[in-house]
Amino acid sequence: MTGITKNVQANVDFYMGFLGLHLIKQTGGYEDAEQLHLFYGDVHGAPGSVVSFLVWEDGAPGRVGEGQAGEIAFAVPLDSIGEWLTRALDVRVPVEQPTREFGETVLRLKDPDGIIVKLVGTDLGREPLQTGQVAPTRLRAVTLFSGDPAATAEFAEKFGYRMSATEGQIQRMVSDTDAIDIRDTRGFFSGIPGTGVLDHVAFRAPDAAAVREMRGSLARAHEPTNVHDRKYFLSLYARDPAGLLFEYATDAPGFAVDEPAGHLGETLLIPDHDTARAADLRAMLPQFAQPGEPRMPKRSLPFVHRFRHPEDPDGSVMLLLHGTGGNEADLMPLAARLNPRATLLGVRGRATEEHVTRFFRRFDVETFDQEDIRAEARAFEAFLHAAVQGYGLDTEAVTVLGYSNGANFAASVMALHPGLIRRAILLRAIPVLIELPQVDLSSAQVLLLTGRDDPLSSEAPRLAQWLQDSGAGVESEVVEAGHEISPADLNAARAWLTR
Questions:
Q1: pTM higher than 0.90, yes or no?
Q2: Per residue in 19-29, pLDDT tens?
């Protein structure tokens, strides 16, 4: 099974810390390497034990409904349900009273994203996935929400399942090792992709030839994808007539192809086709602590934010404000190059128009919502004060790095809340406030970097002059670039930080 989580730390704490699974692989996604992909299972990553999650950190929630997998079930020892119920209550995992389904005792839980996880008391003859007498032994079943259960059942037969029993609106199909429960959801609302949903279910293929044969058999009716090389397995995807996404994947070469057995999941790996930007991706992908490792607290603050902690921190902090359409991780590669030892704090803008993220609204390319700028600046002031206190930051060690919309926002914050930002590197900044107030910025140091060929640069000198008139120490430089960030920006910013 593959799901989508919005909180990598909570996901790790649940599947490793609470359920007791092994982390067997952490990698950049093979479709999108800027997306962290975590795999859990037994210590070997054996087929039938693996559940994985794509990380959309603080991403929009989806909706579980027709055309999606709705529940995932793990087999646990027969006599362990009572202990699992007690454990769930002790650590406040949402849990229901045990029930009986298809002759088995079932305990329903919810993971931190709200995904339903069932623990099924049954003896499937497997060793626990983790050390401990009550740990899960393998995947037991998945529940599929289908608006056409007969068609879904016929489709599942292609993957080795046969009809077994019916209870109410649920038909159970079984293989030699596990089960599919197909729930009749005709009349339900449709599922929506996003965090907190199970994206697809993967079935075991004996080898690459079987995958290609399956593609041929599905080609006309179900429009399968091409065969994908995911390094650890070959696979293809296809949707059944009810819209459910099925994957068919090989065992080989397995999860030990790039890490030694016994040390799976210890290293963040980057897909081979993205090795040229491996350093940038490692800077962007969210970090997490495994159970028992030290970690920072996560504070609830007005802006979505993310830290990146270097291996050898020097005490400095770079606060990152992205450009239009960006997110809190966009500037982390640049910042990591500027100072590999700096702690990075990326912030996500809250103004969204046409699904584009900004720090404040605009009416057109040159007209900006003045009230929204002021409101968001007040919220940012509250955020920064709370971050300093909640995370124990040293305000003297904070440098703001802003690009485009983020740089414009930083300059506006300096105008509206003087003294809040004391050191800033502003790339492609222009003044967006109609009136720039008279303020005292004598404690501030600012580097302005303007692109020579930037079509929006005509107003940059006015911003530089206002900063100087306000008493700030300003260095302004024109670099060989347009509106995009260039290597010249890196060199100029690094030299300025050194000075």
A1: yes
A2: 999 999 999 99
Is residue 352 pLDDT above 90, yes or no? Answer: no
272 is catalytic: no
Tens-place pLDDT, residues 101-159? 999 999 999 999 999 999 999 977 555 555 556 889 899 999 999 999 999 999 999 99
Instruction: Give pLDDT tens digits for 134-144.
Output: 889 899 999 99
Domain residue limits at 433: 301-498
Strand 423-427, strand 398-403: pairing: parallel
Catalytic site residue from 44, 222, 417, 483: 483
Q: What per-residue string of b and e applies to 89-98 under the rule 16 or more CB within 10 Å gives b? A: eeeebebeee
Is 454 considered catalytic here?
yes
Q: What is the pLDDT of residues 73-85, one digit of tens each?
A: 999 998 999 999 9
Q: Which of 80, 146, 404, 412 is catalytic?
A: 404
Compute the distance between CA of residue 396 and CA of residue 499 in angstroms, rounded to an integer. 16
CA distances to 12, 133, 315 from 111, rounded to whole Å, are: 10, 21, 35
Q: Is residue 195 part of a domain?
A: yes
Identify the CATH number of the domain in which residue 127 sits.
Answer: 3.10.180.10
Question: 485: domain CATH number?
Answer: 3.40.50.1820
Q: Which of 399, 444, 447, 437 is nearest to 416 (CA)?
A: 437
Of 199, 280, 454, 489, the active-site residue reads 454
**How far is Cα 42 from Cα 181, in angstroms, rounded to an integer?**
23
250 and 332 co-located in one domain? no
User: What's the rounded Cα separation, in Å, for the pair 4 and 22?
Assistant: 18
The whole-angstrom separation of Cα 37 and Cα 11 is 12
- Residue 287: inside a domain: no
Shared domain check, 318 and 220:
no
Please indicate, yes or no, whether residues 314 and 413 belong to a single structural domain of this protein: yes
